[in-house]
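Subject: mismatched residue count in predicted assembly?

I count 829 residues in my input, but I want to confirm that the predicted structure covers every chain. Input:
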Amino acid sequence: MNSEHEPKIVAFLCKWCSSAGSDMAGVSRLEYPSNVIPITVMCSGSVSPLYILSAFNLGADGVLVSGCHPGDCHYIKGNMYARRRMALLKELLPYIGLEPERFQMSWVSAAEGLKFTQIIKEFVKQLKPLGPQTQLRRSL
Amino acid sequence: MEKVLKKSDLGQWVARLKDFDLYGPVRENNHWEFNQISQLANFPEDYTQVNVPLKKILLPNREVLFQFEDNRNGGPYLQEVLPEEREVVVFGVRPCDARGIVLLEKVFSSEIPDIYFERRRQQVYVVGLSCYPLPGENCFCLSLGGGPFSTKGMDILLTKMQSKYFVEVLTPKGEKLIKAAPEYFFNPTDKDQQERQQLERKARAMFTRQIEGVEKIWPVLSQMFESPLWREESYRCLKCGICTYLCPTCHCFDITDEISSTAPLQGKRVRVWDTCQFPDFTMHSSGHNPRPDKASRLRQRIMHKFLYFVETFGDIMCTGCGRCVSKCPVGIDIIDILNKVASHGA
Amino acid sequence: MVEVEKIREEARRLLQEGQVRGVIGYVRGPQGVWAVPAMIRNPEDVDRLVWNPTCVHNLVLFVVEEKKEQARQKEPDKRPLAVVVKGCDSRAINVLLQEKFIEREEVILLGVSCENSGVVDKKKLLNLVPSQKIEEIVYGNNGHIVAVIDGERRVFPPEEVLADRCLECQANFPVVYDHFFGEKIKKEAINTSPGVDKIEKMRLEERRRFWEEELSRCLRCYACRSVCPMCYCTECVVDPISFAVEPTTTAEEKAKKIKWIEKSPLLSENFVYHLVRAIHLAGRCVDCGECERVCPEDIPIRLLNKKLEREAWRLFNYVAGMDSQAPSLFSTFKETDPEDFIR
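Triage response: the counts match. Full output below for your records.
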């Protein structure tokens, strides 16, 4: 396996919690790997599985969906809908042969800057030995 | 030139064709497909007809036309991409599919030749296999001027006999293939000739499906644009692409740009299969669709094959392979429809 | 035994009384015994209706098409449609009701029971009786299928000729109907999905190789999408242009349309297409199996849907199409939904 590979992670972060959490990590001057491309969304419940598949299709080595903790959703229950949808996608991807580590979900609140950095560090660590994601990646 | 080849020598001959990429019928799940092969000992007894006809090689479902790059300093930069240079021999091509090539040539190799098709056509050697018994229950090539032993579009036609193949060498390309292993080819005896003729007669008598009076169809069709027949026959149509994608003569395509990088802008312009059966095929950017329903799309398929193509190229754009009939998930039957059309003129 | 004469009688009555604008049912197709879908509009045509093991199609597709067609009409015919539904088809009706795509009074359901049999897989039967002329296919006893071939009756046990979906079916009679034909015989499925078991047992690389081989053949003829009554979106992510384009749509709006998936049948694009379709059908797919039947390349598409069906049951105790009043899989949640995969 290619241990030199620097994985590219697309992270869908909810505006109210996880994106704020990543800001918290920044203002707290916590260090974490620069492999992540954050995309702020209004709610984890607004992330369509299509976005995730499309991220893989356009070259992501890993995709993270992160929202508010249960009960904290700005829209009351958006994250609960997301949880159902992502649970099924999480089962579907390894079924077709994609490494389960490549798609992850987390709850990160606006205060959890440290947790955010830990999740990213851990994600990068898991992805590195897997090498580039080629199964869903479009190569023309 | 006519020859015979011992059945056991087929593999030896094919093994000599080292300079070529070889394609032959390969069983996949429930059907046959032309795939690349390394050897060919015989044609399996249960080989009927491939799913995707020869156009898969001549008119692939994705053809790169050119690459482009928007180089900030030097402006847009285009580079032509031509099909790779390789000579391909395809074994086991049925006469209907080989005739399909002749019809495709009318479109792509006439006044303005299509360089991509032309190059592929020049590189493909067609080794046909005559049809005895008939490969499909919906074969109707006989009604369209073809036949189970038709040689149109082929370089060599093989006929499976008792212990030998009867080999009809039809073109210089065919001769080139024979010359790779001349010692396996012998002159046919009178008995061989008779055996071959007899098989052809038997095969021709096997057809159960036919169009009555195909010559009547195109004058009648030209009067049938508004016929209620199209609505009736298309009610159950699914709007899928099976009938056209598996057709040996359907050749409609879409051209699209595939972007591999946005900064700098890089990508390829590709030609991909498209079909008149998809609702968006004729969709205008205004939102208007001149063929808005299934009836008009079915009509287009029939009219293109049996009227417009006849008017433009003097030939019917259908070889009677029967795929669109056998493969239609809802039993839309072009033979049945054409017989109904013919009866309108009676 | 389902008596076709009773179905015809009901259809005739509905048409004669003008209660319905048409009856969607099965008729004998142009190629011998194989039934095809048809819309019967006149009472004198009801004798064309048939019911036999070749009635494979899910006719709910035509309910969807009629609904869209009527929406385009200036003066739509508001009378309901009568439609012949098998067990799986009736569950498709339930999903459409659940999603408020149709209202209950728009359809009159002529429910037929598959009893303890199902419908024939044409490919399986033709492998057993190649190139012979089949004159008739009817139901025999105990789920057996009887085919008359060259004047001779041949009896086939269900596992030899029935479609996989029928062998795996656990709800072989309609769950929603207005008129019911036949008998409700609860049958034990042989296995709910041996195909899914097989893939689950594979190692990750084997699964990848399996799906790469299967999906590389996809021609993107979209027959799977076209035949699916649940694929009723006006705009699909794979369409290169948008159907939502109206004369008033501005150039800017058009330019902003995202091209999610390339039109080329590249392996990566085929993967994304089939995965998107599978996930969009999660909790909606009633396993009528039509997508797999129509695929000209014999891609086992059902295995994707069956996997999600299994997971929806395992994780959320959800079965598609059983109850039109219950919320759909993704429009609801429970506090106790599993979240051990979330960090």
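Residues 1-117+170-188 of chain C form one domain. Marking this ticket as 'not a bug'.
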